[in-house]
């Protein structure tokens, strides 16, 4: 493997690991379920994608590359959809948001308006 490719792989692994670390820190530090869910999906999905991309770049067999790319595709398809469904259910259940939340565009979507009671 040439030195440029080694640098690309190293940068992708380090960036992916840092994003996964930031996702974990966000889960601990963010104030409400919606912010935590954002931290759990976006950086961790991209972080895992970068690490798997680096692995696919280093893989020697075509079958391994296909499997790793399939895992990346499934992660990018399923994690945001699952997070959206959890957020929607939490919002409809009336889960309180952080006091720092400025706008609730789905307030009229709740079956029982939790803000008026």
What do these coordinates show?
It is a single chain. By secondary structure, the chain is mainly α. The longest helix is centred in the middle third of the chain and has 32 residues, at 62-93. It is elongated. The protein has a single domain (3-109), classed as Helix Hairpins (Orthogonal Bundle), CATH 1.10.287. It has helices spanning 3-29, 33-58, 62-93. It is 73% helix and 0% strand. It is built from 3 helices and no strands.
Give a topology summary.
Layout lengths: L2 H27 L3 H26 L3 H32 L24
Helix pairs in contact: 1-2, 2-3
What's the number of domains? 1
Q: Which class do the helix and strand fractions yield?
A: mainly alpha
Instruction: Give the end-to-end Cα distance, rounded to a whole number of Å.
Output: 64 Å
Gross CATH architecture: Orthogonal Bundle
Q: What's the gyration radius in Å?
A: 19 Å
Note the run of SSEs as H and E.
Answer: HHH
Average per-residue pLDDT, rounded, comes to 87
Beta fraction: under 5%
Key attributes of the depicted protein:
single chain, 117 residues, mainly alpha, Helix Hairpins, 3 helices, elongated
């Amino acid at each position: 493997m040439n030195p440029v490719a080694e640098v690309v792989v190293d940068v992708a692994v380090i960036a992916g690991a840092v994003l996964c670390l930031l996702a974990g820190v966000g889960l601990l530090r963010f104030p409400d379920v919606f912010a935590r869910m954002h931290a759990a999906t976006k950086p961790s999905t991209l972080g895992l994608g970068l690490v798997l991309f680096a692995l696919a770049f280093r893989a020697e067999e075509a079958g391994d590359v296909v499997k790793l790319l399939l895992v990346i595709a499934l992660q990018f398809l399923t994690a945001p959809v699952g997070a959206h469904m959890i957020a929607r259910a939490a919002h409809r259940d009336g889960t309180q948001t952080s006091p720092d939340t400025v706008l609730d565009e789905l307030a009229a979507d709740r079956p029982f308006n939790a803000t008026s009671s």
